[in-house]
Amino acid sequence: MARKSKAIDHMVNRMSKVRLVDERAAAPPQSQDDPVEDGKEAAQRQPFRFFDLPYELRLRVYEELLIFPKTIDLDETNYRTIAPALRLFLVDHRMHDEASRVFYGGNTFRVFPIGRYINRKHPLLAWFPRKYRAQLTRLELRLGPGFTKPPKCWVVDSRLGLAAMKKVYKLKVFVELDPASNDVFEGFRAGKNFYTEYCVGLLRGLLAQLPSIDDVEFDAYPSVSKSSPLLRGLLEETKLNQKRVAWGPERGWDEIVEVDLVGVLQKMGLDTF
């Protein structure tokens, strides 16, 4: 029995050596280091010299990465949609300077937060350092949220840092609804003219502290008409401050002429069925 065990061990040992030799024979021969090939690989791995591009091309790249179609505000999705692009700021001082001018100067930032952040004590503008506020060019004032009880933090004061925003030339005013335009809001609004006067006061404060504004762009949801009390009050305040009035793309006021639909139907005899 002992002899058989020794024979088996001897056979296994020999088979292992034969397998090891076969594997070594089957392995492809290792090529000797070629300095020419190593030089080619090193040349291929060299980083792209971004700053060798003309400034116009670099600017185009920044705009593709850092300009966003929607207004920027406090939002729980910012870490996913905006934060990754801001990593450019961390490359070096030169890229930080160029990229920050594009990001802060090319996007629109909301003055007061809405949604889940509507009652935040400090709006987005309050978090910006002074050097970034100085680069802003477009702001948005969104009206309608909180019309039953306007947030206490919606105040035009020093927290916003408006004094540093010398380059802001456009203020976008978006009206979601006008509680004074329909009796359906009766019982929800504080008073028929309260919200209109409140919003006009916000616009007056912004125009007073941002004299660099040239254009005020108005836009709204389809339920808001040009003849609504809130929009009329905002337009009057804009004209009193001698600012140009523009119309945004959402409502399409530039493309259509508003008519009194009820009056037209009455004239056509279609008001009753």
TrEMBL record:
Q: Which InterPro entries match?
A: AN11006-like (IPR038883)
Q: What is this protein called?
A: F-box domain-containing protein
According to its UniProt entry, this protein's organism is: Alternaria arborescens
Q: Please name the taxonomic classification of the source.
A: Eukaryota, Fungi, Dikarya, Ascomycota, Pezizomycotina
